[in-house]
Structure formats: structure tokens, C-alpha cells
Design a protein that fits this description.
Elements: H1 21-30, E1 48-49, E2 52-53
Antiparallel strand pairs: 1-2
């Protein structure tokens, strides 16, 4: 079974820089991806993993009414 790469790029500092869309595409190709999904990286973007908000304090996160879940099933 081929690997299923998951790439999350976040920056959380004023003036911080994440990869460009082209750089991200190049990384995904290097990881062997055929398809990829680019999501909005605006103020509402948050990374929640294992019960913890990783890229911002929960009180400063913008409320959104949708999301994308990635579940690993054995």
C-alpha cells in the first residue's frame, strides 16, 4: 500500500512565512502525491489535533461552522 502523505504548513508569527503554493506543490510531488488539496489559510484557518488547538489559543480562534476531518482507521 502506498504512503498517504499529509502536509500541514502553518506559521504563527507576525511576518511569518509559510511555503508558497508552488513550493507546496513541489513538496507534494516529491512525496509522491498525485492529488492534493489547498485550503484557505486566512484568519479562520486552525489546526486541531488530538484535542489540542496547535496554531493559536482557542480564545483567539475565529468561529467557523465547517471543517475538514482526517481520520486514520486501522
Amino acid at each position: 500500500m502506498p504512503a498517504n502523505p499529509l502536509l500541514v504548513a502553518i506559521h504563527n508569527s507576525p511576518g511569518g512565512r509559510g511555503p508558497t503554493l508552488t513550493e507546496t506543490a513541489q513538496i507534494m510531488v516529491q512525496l509522491g502525491s498525485i492529488n492534493a488539496l489547498n485550503l484557505d489559510g486566512g484568519n479562520s484557518a486552525s489546526l486541531y489535533l488530538g484535542g489540542t488547538m496547535l496554531n493559536r489559543h482557542p480564545q483567539t480562534a475565529v468561529r467557523v461552522h465547517n471543517g475538514l476531518g482526517v481520520l486514520l482507521v486501522p
